[in-house]
Fold:
Amino acid sequence: MAYEIVMPRLGWTMEEGIFVEWLKKDGDAVQVGDLLCAVEGDKAINEIESFESGILRIPPDAPPPGAKVKVGTLLGYILAVGEQLPMGKTKIAALNVQHATSEIQSPLTTADQATKRPADHPTISPRARRIAAELGVQWQAITGSGRTGRIVERDVRAAAAMQMQTEPRSELRVSPLARRRAEELGVDLRTLTEAGKRIEVADVEAAAKQNLTEPALSLPKGLKDLSGLQGIPLTNVRRVIAERMATSAHTAAAVTLTTEADATEFVRLRQAIVADLKDADVPAPSYNDLLTKLVAVALREHPTLNASLDDDQIIQHAAVHIGMAVDTERGLLVPVVHDVQAKSVQQIAAESARLIEQVRTNKIAADDLRGGTFTITNLGMYEIDAFTPIINLPQCAILGVGRIVAKQVVIDEDAETVAVRKMMALSLTFDHRIVDGAPAARFLQRIKRFVEHPFGWLTR
Structure:
């Protein structure tokens, strides 16, 4: 019986995604667990594995790489040896039919197929595929050293090193996002090549702008001459961000409270931790990691803020799952540290470092982007004080963190004494449909106290 491969739903709100590429070829033998294709959901690229064994058949009218595809759309089939495509579905090209016939007539056992496949159809691990794309290596010509001849990372890096020795000036190192952006904007990547330099999205967009200023050249694909205005195609991630932010702004009864905390002791605490871990082989917690822990403690004391609205009921979550807003080349993404209430500061630091690295290298799993009950967004590194963060629905609230800056403040009003202290701006946006102003204010006040006296929550 034919097994249909369809566009999966990678999130509750996902209605369509982008078909990125096939990881197998038409006519390849497929085993359960093999990676079939890569698709992009709302926020991440996911590699889809097979739940059946058989022969992969890709119809001629299957969505091409880069196409927007609705959830449930047919992508291909896995058929048994000798099985024909379902009538009325589609036709197989003549070349594919011949390929299938040769497969059917070949009396190979599964073990024989595993022995033969590396020579005829080289396979590659997902990590090796990504490394090959970054280093500009044509992996199809590589002989794999992995089990059953699979191409692994060391094979790709060895090929890249050989390529550098034989053709040092032809190396083209391009990030996957930059390669896709170049296709969207019609930029020739060869014009951006510099020895030893990896081409990033910013390089591609700068080249696209330069092309606009050259009258002798035609406009890149996706850009239109609108009296000097530049039109940038809306990416899938940017479209999702736009939809969710607009929904939040028009749905939630958002109210923002702001305060300023004396973070002098908070800064000293982190400095002491960093100094203590200087020679240790573990990551030192960032200010965000410390804030994640103290916010989790505060949420356990104020559960009305660790809540979400589900139709006609308010759900207060027992566990605390905190999302961290991260700026990436693709846009704003929010990986989630799950069960923060049960983790130490050191565990939070290790988990957040992993999530940030994966989200910035586009390797984040879909599960790591779901399930948040509260979000923290920090713009302090951009010298921003107070701001109005937008709630990440269906969550109840989001905490905006501003910069830590030295200020002269009054220490004793009666004695008229002042001192220089490190102050931090905090902005809490909450959904007034779920919680009232007074409970929200008490929660923000608790966070302020934790910042100013940062020792009571460390062991919780």
